[in-house]
Specification:
The complex is a heterodimer.
Chain A lengths: L5 E4 L5 E4 L4 H26 L3 H26 L5 H6 L1 E5 L7 H9 L1 H5 L5 H9 L6 H6 L1 E5 L25 H13 L5 H9 L2 H4 L3 H16 L3
Helix pairs in contact in A: 1-2, 2-4, 8-11, 9-11
Chain B lengths: L2 H20 L7 H17 L4 H18 L6 H19 L1 H24 L4 H4 L2 H10 L13 H24 L6 H23 L3 H34 L6 H34 L6 H21 L6
The chains are: A mainly alpha, B mainly alpha.
Chain lengths: ~230, ~325
């Protein structure tokens, strides 16, 4: 498989698959968060710094909270998403797929200081590129993953009953059957030319090329799915 | 069973589950429905059903998993238990790295002033003359933060500064542990050296009567906080250097989980220390003798807490 999927086994004994987010979307999310934090700091500076000593004290406390509490609070309370991650469709999860709690989120935020070293997140980037699940050092220590949050894939549509199902001319193994059914599932999303190209690979089975080959494969898939 | 039959048999159940996980409030029906769905996913994989169906079920199981395996305990009871004894238990469980951190900070802090009694010029090895002059000015009678009689604004400003600065130092002392412990060692040693130099220099300059009452109270929390955070960092570093019978990654993840309570404790102590430093230590209204007495009480209390708290329900 060339997919960069990370799988974890749940206590129920099934495997869950995630797609970990690479350095670029994560850097963008970090940049957005930095912009949001910078804007908040600017607004606070304008509002508080004119108020003398007490304002200066409050400003420094707010600065401290924005620096350290901002990522942790959002990751724990907003289902693993800081505003930047939300815009990029990313999410922090425990390495076993469960939501992050305070302690893991704190570890990964605290250690981002080391990921930054020696400059510009070089250490974190190296760790992400070396590992299979693109975890920075803080993620490794905390046991967390940053994954792409995909919308729930739609339920497969029931086969339309127009064309009659077709039986294969020779026995197919399970993976072969699965490939044909998956092709039929994806064919509506492909251009006709590309679908024809793929169907041509199975000319020995279908005995047809191009559009007709696609139609034959779809009929075969209906038979394999068990459509009436 | 053909995929079509399988889908027809369970389609309604999946739609119901989708509604269940989308509902804001948790439902009693979720665990059972979730387990049935896990079974369906496993069956779909085993029977080589299509990728579309498997992805749909994977997405549903993932959503259910998120709801089912969260932290159940609210934040407030966790913190209550933590402060009532969990912190002290964690510190005792990590006794060796914490002791090492205490030595790394305490030895230079104690030995440097002693050495400076014999050779006062030693201080110039570690501090700039300019910053020493500044330090001396700060503790002159009536200057800077002394002789304040309740200018609330300045107190709050200093409070904010102490929080922003001191908690950050503790956090960095912890995070530095990821560099095989070297970062923690550096932060502990350098803070120990600077503290020792300041203490030795000011005492020799005859400013001890101003300096000691000022630092003694809040340092009862601030110095242990730095030591705890540094010890937590050393624990991380040691897990990387000597992972034992685990892989380095596993050892690191485990050590980080064990070290987190110490960092939380350090942050709490730093915030309390900042309160004391801003509103009590710097106040000119409190006589020096009272400050020293309070310091003795606080040091005893911190030591007693770390040594004794949380032993009963261990």
């Amino acid at each position: 498989m060339i997919d960069t999927l990370a799988t974890v086994e749940t206590p129920e004994g099934v495997e869950l698959a995630f797609s970990p987010a690479g350095p670029v979307p994560r850097a963008l999310a970090y940049g957005l968060d930095a912009l949001i934090r910078g804007a908040a700091e600017l607004a606070l500076a304008v509002a508080l710094l004119g108020l003398g000593g007490a304002g200066r004290g409050l400003f420094l406390i707010a600065l401290f909270l924005l620096e350290w509490a901002y990522p942790v609070a959002f990751e724990v309370l907003a289902r693993g998403q800081t505003p930047g991650k939300k815009l990029l469709g990313l999410r922090v999860l425990r390495a076993d797929g469960a939501p992050v709690g305070w302690s893991r989120s704190s570890v990964r935020s605290l250690l981002s200081f080391v990921d930054f070293l020696p400059f510009g997140f070089a250490a974190g980037l190296t760790a992400m590129l070396l590992g299979r699940r693109s975890q920075r050092l803080g993620d490794l220590a905390a046991g967390t993953l940053v994954v792409h949050l995909e919308p729930l894939p739609p339920a497969p549509r029931p086969a339309d009953a127009e064309a009659a199902p077709l039986a294969p001319t020779w026995p197919l193994t399970l993976p072969e059957q699965r490939a044909i059914m998956s092709f039929a599932e994806r064919a509506p999303g492909l251009t006709p030319e590309r679908a024809g190209e793929l169907a041509d690979l199975l000319e020995p089975l279908t005995g047809a090329r191009g559009g007709q080959g696609v139609a034959r494969l779809q009929a075969l898939a209906r038979g394999l799915r068990g459509a009436p | 069973m053909k995929q079509e039959q399988f889908e027809r048999a369970h389609r309604q159940e999946w739609a119901a589950f989708e509604a269940l996980v989308a509902a804001p409030a948790g439902s009693e029906a979720l665990p059972a429905a979730y387990r049935r769905l896990c079974q369906h996913l496993a069956l779909a994989r085993d029977r080589c059903y299509t990728a579309g169906l498997i992805q749909h079920l994977n997405g549903l199981v993932l959503a259910g998993h998120q709801l089912l395996y969260g932290s159940a305990l609210g934040l407030a009871p966790q913190w209550g238990r933590f402060l009532a004894g969990g912190l002290a238990r964690s510190v005792r469980a990590r006794f060796r790295p914490v002791l090492l951190a205490a030595l790394l900070f305490g030895l230079p802090a104690a030995l440097l002033p002693l050495a400076m009694v014999r050779d006062p010029a030693l201080v110039y090895l570690v501090e700039e003359p300019g910053s020493l002059a500044q330090l001396e000015q700060m503790y002159q009678k009536g200057a800077g933060r002394f002789g304040r009689t309740g200018q609330a604004g300045t107190d709050v400003a200093m409070f904010g500064f102490y929080i922003w600065n001191n908690v950050r130092i503790s956090f960095q002392a912890f995070a530095g542990g990821l560099l095989l412990g070297a970062g923690s060692v550096f932060f502990l040693l350098s803070n120990g050296v600077h503290f020792g130099a300041a203490a030795g220099y000011l005492t020799q300059a005859g400013l001890g009567p101003q300096f000691w009452p000022f630092v003694s109270t809040h340092s009862a929390l601030e110095l242990p906080a730095l030591v705890l955070a540094g010890g937590a960092g050393l624990h991380l570093g040691w897990a990387l250097l000597a992972p034992g019978r685990r892989s380095r990654g596993q050892a690191l993840a485990r050590a980080a989980r064990e070290a987190v309570p110490l960092v939380y404790g350090a942050a709490v102590m730093d915030v309390l220390a900042a309160c004391l430093e801003a509103f009590w230590s710097a106040s000119a209204l409190v006589p020096a003798a009272v400050k020293l007495a309070a310091a003795a009480v606080l040091w005893t209390a911190v030591a007693g807490y770390l040594a004794l708290a949380g032993r009963r329900r261990a």
